[in-house]
Write a structure and sequence with these properties.
By secondary structure, the chain is α+β, with helices and mostly antiparallel strands. Helices cover about 40% and strands about 15% of the residues. It has a single domain (about 5-135), classed as 2-Layer Sandwich (Alpha-Beta Plaits). The chain has 7 helices and 4 strands; from the N terminus they run E-H-H-E-H-H-E-H-H-E-H. The protein has a 4-stranded antiparallel beta sheet with strand order 2-3-1-4. Helix 3 packs across helix 4. The longest helix is centred in the last third of the chain and has 11 residues, at about 120-130. The protein is globular and about 35 Å long. The structure holds adenosine-3',5'-cyclic-monophosphate. The site of adenosine-3',5'-cyclic-monophosphate (CMP) has 9 residues, from helix 4.
Length: about 140
């Protein structure tokens, strides 16, 4: 069972000033922050992070959006972290997200959906290591 996941509070949520409220939801749901930084991805870095979606029609739009402004990246620890965090953030499309989830509250569209959460233990590790060195993971 996984006990770590990776998240990013995306540029749309940062612009709207929702970072603090989202971090509060994360803490109250029982996740421990074991790494965190605010940063601004270049187009190059956003493209690398989402390389798995390179062939998708929305890839260009996704890279533009993710490099539009600052994000907050974090590694979170909790029993069953990947699955529980995806429940907390809700469906990718906010129109389908359950009441009380981060995306229901703060996302505006499938593209500008406020927050990212890893979809597997393997990707949580890859994504965490993309942003944080070993010395920055507590
Ligand atoms: P995320 O969970 O970060 O992982 C992939 C991202 O691609 C997703 O959130 C959305 O921001 C974006 N995405 C997925 N599907 C679409 C779509 N149909 N149109 C635009 N962006 C999308």
């Amino acid at each position: 069972m996984s006990n770590r996941t990776f998240t990013m509070i995306k540029p749309d949520a940062t612009e709207k000033g929702h970072t603090g409220a989202i971090l509060k939801m994360i803490n109250e749901a029982g996740f421990r922050i074991v790494a965190m930084k605010m940063t601004h991805l270049s187009r190059q870095k956003a493209g690398e992070f989402y390389a798995v979606h390179k062939e998708r029609p929305f890839y260009g739009e996704l890279v533009e959006f993710m490099s539009r402004g600052p994000i907050t990246a974090a590694i979170l620890e909790k029993e069953n972290a990947v699955e529980d965090f995806r429940k907390l953030i809700g469906a990718t499309n906010p129109a389908e997200a359950a009441e009380g989830t981060v995306r229901k509250l703060y996302a505006s569209s499938i593209g500008e959906n406020a927050i990212h959460g890893s979809d597997s233990d393997e990707n949580a590790k890859i994504e965490s290591d993309f942003f944080f060195s070993k010395l920055e993971q507590f």
